[in-house]
Amino acid sequence: MNSPSSFKLLAIRSLLKDEAIAISALKALPMELFPPLFQGAFDGKQTNILRAMVASWPFRCLPVGALMKTPDLEILKAMLRGLDLLIKEKDGLRSCKLEVLDLRDTQHNFWKVWAGKEDVVCSADVVSESQPAVCNPIPRGKQVVTVMMDLSLNSRDLCKSLKYFHWWAKQRKDALQVICEKLEFGALPVYKPLKLLEVFEPSSIQELELNAHWDLRTLAMFAPGLGQMRNLQKLFVNKIFTPLDWFRKQEMKEWSFREIISQFSQLNKLQHLYLNGVFFLNDRLDQVLRYLESPLENLAITRCMLSESDMRYLSQCPSVCQLTYLDLSGVTFLNYSHPLLGRLLERLTATLQTLKLKDCKLMNFQIDDLLPALSQCSQLVEVNFVKNFLSVSSLQKLLQHTANLKNLALEMYPAPTEVYNAIGDVIPGRFVQHCSELLETLRGIREPKEIYIVSKRCRHCQTFCVYDLEALLCTCWE
């Protein structure tokens, strides 16, 4: 005897063979046949069926992004033409329940449930519970449908699909809301990135990553858009450089600094802030942090200059009092009043879980000022002090002050200064001896879980000499 699922499969195959019949059957098609029929039409790129199904979709959300492995312009056009049919219907006559076209790579369970691959009853209630909540940052009286998408832009120019969507959405702004919660630039754009935001609700963006070594000019031109992202929770900026033709244009640089920094006054919802190689922070850190309404969870300011006034503000800033993650790697502390870093740690003893002070040029006297506060950071799980100038005795003190930090799972320390000769090369015998002694010192206090002692780069094999629980050394010593 044929099972119900076999009859359903036969019905779907039959409909897919004749587009005209499939489209005419949509008005009477049982709800449970919509998802498998849609997926079959999607796999076969039957765009006429897809367009009609979008306009007749019986659920609140169509998570088509879960089916899109790669961008397909023709399928995207079919989706949007289906929305055009829906938009043209008068509200009182609409039979379609569709409110959200979800282009994100999420909601895979929707298709598994309706394909019978999940042990769940296929009902409208099950599906509706799995649909995403739609934020409506700017309610519109004429709004008919919402499009949700996340963008990861890894090419210098926009792909054809995104160019088409941008053109299409601009023509329908009164009837359309475009939500983009995650926006990432993985390349320096040759287009104007600010114009890309014309079709989005800027206040819907919660995560922004500029991970492409933008130049100062591009970032300044984009800055007004950044200021509109009032619900932004995560901001990652990686390496900003000055255009060659701007090096002598001090007025242009100062204008750019003001244009960018002033936008942070609007970003009072930030919880995660990562700034790497952002050179214009020097003497301006207070302008970045002072407007935050809630305490930050993660803060990374790396590979840049901070003034003593910046560090003084950071040690007192209300927004950093509950950090769980602090990374100041590559920030040089040689010229600072050294107690400031200790004061900052004193405020984080109850919350800090990750501390990274890699390549900060810390010296023995500066580490001594950190130790009392460090020993009280009871929640620490990870520490990194690699590439600092510490002697054997300072490292012994550092390890002794971590005695009560029971949660430490990953520890990274610099090789002591005594392992190097007069020209800075590692002396293998000294490296092994001192690292072994340090490890024995630590084991006399507590048993480490994962620990590494790392030297400067070896001039012979161009790798770092590493001593860990397995006593692994650089390859040139073997």
Mean pLDDT across every amino acid position: 88
Q: If helices are DSSP runs of H or I spanning 4 or more residues, what is the number of helices?
A: 17
Cα end-to-end separation: 70 Å
The description of the largest β-sheet is: 14 strands, mixed
Approximate shape: elongated
Cα-based radius of gyration, to the nearest Å? 29 Å
Low-confidence stretches: 118-140
Class by helix and strand content? alpha/beta
Q: Strand-residue fraction?
A: 5-15%
Question: Strand order across the biggest sheet?
Answer: 1-2-3-4-5-6-7-8-9-10-11-12-13-14
What is the helix content? Answer: 25-40%
| DSSP, total strands | 14
Write up what this structure looks like:
With 478 residues, the protein is of the alpha/beta class. The chain contains 17 helices and 14 strands. It has a 14-stranded mixed β-sheet with strand order 1-2-3-4-5-6-7-8-9-10-11-12-13-14, with helices on one face. The longest helix has 16 residues, at 73-88. It is elongated, with a radius of gyration of 29 Å. The model is unreliable at 118-140 (pLDDT under 50).
List the helices and strands and how they pair.
Blueprint: H1 4-17, H2 19-25, H3 34-43, H4 47-56, E1 61-62, H5 73-88, E2 100-102, H6 108-114, H7 124-130, E3 145-153, H8 160-170, E4 176-185, H9 193-196, E5 207-210, H10 216-227, E6 234-238, H11 250-261, E7 272-276, H12 285-289, E8 298-302, H13 308-316, E9 325-327, H14 339-346, E10 354-356, H15 364-374, E11 382-384, H16 392-400, E12 410-414, H17 428-443, E13 451-457, E14 464-468
Parallel strand pairs: 1-2, 2-3, 3-4, 4-5, 5-6, 6-7, 7-8, 8-9, 9-10, 10-11, 11-12, 12-13
Antiparallel strand pairs: 13-14
Helix pairs in contact: 1-3, 2-4, 3-4, 4-5, 5-8, 10-11, 13-14, 14-15, 16-17
